């Protein structure tokens, strides 16, 4: 294959690329964003008012996510956290949907 031939973009890179390039077509997603914000706000308020109760887990949990769409170093951060915790004698596990995940729905 010639090095000048371009590889097609993966489906998983379309949205992050559009986000960072501030693609105009993203404006069509604003209503969905407003709906998500409304639902999230209601859910948060339900927890704050005691209408919903958080589950208690038997192990400590560290969540790394929602920093931004992609490419900000979440994976290296998780690796660093795991290495640190192992060095402290812990046995951390990682649960991840992962980049370009093919997990069943």
Secondary structure: number of strands: 0
Q: Helical amount among residues, as a percent range?
A: 40-55%
Distance between the termini: 35 Å
Structural class per helix/strand content? mainly alpha
Strand proportion, as a percent range, falls in: under 5%
Spans of 5+ residues with little confidence (pLDDT < 50)?
none
Specify Rg, calculated over alpha carbons. Answer: 19 Å
Run of helices and strands: HHH
Sketch the major β-sheet. Answer: none
Shape: flat
Number of helices: 3
Mean pLDDT across all residues, rounded?
82
Structure explained in plain terms:
With 105 residues, the protein is an all-alpha fold. It is 41% helix and 0% strand. It has three helices and no strands. The chain is flat. The mean pLDDT is 82.
Summarize this structure as a short list of keywords or feature phrases.
105 residues, mainly alpha, 3 helices, flat
């Amino acid at each position: 294959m010639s090095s000048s031939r371009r590889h097609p973009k993966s489906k998983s890179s379309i949205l992050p690329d559009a986000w960072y390039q501030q693609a105009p077509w993203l404006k069509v997603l604003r209503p969905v964003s407003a709906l998500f914000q409304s639902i999230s706000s209601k859910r948060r308020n339900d927890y704050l008012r005691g209408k919903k109760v958080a589950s208690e887990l038997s192990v400590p949990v560290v969540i790394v996510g929602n920093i931004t769409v992609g490419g900000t170093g979440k994976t290296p951060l998780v690796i660093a956290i795991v290495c640190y915790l192992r060095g402290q004698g812990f046995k951390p596990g990682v649960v991840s949907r992962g980049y370009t995940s093919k997990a069943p729905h």
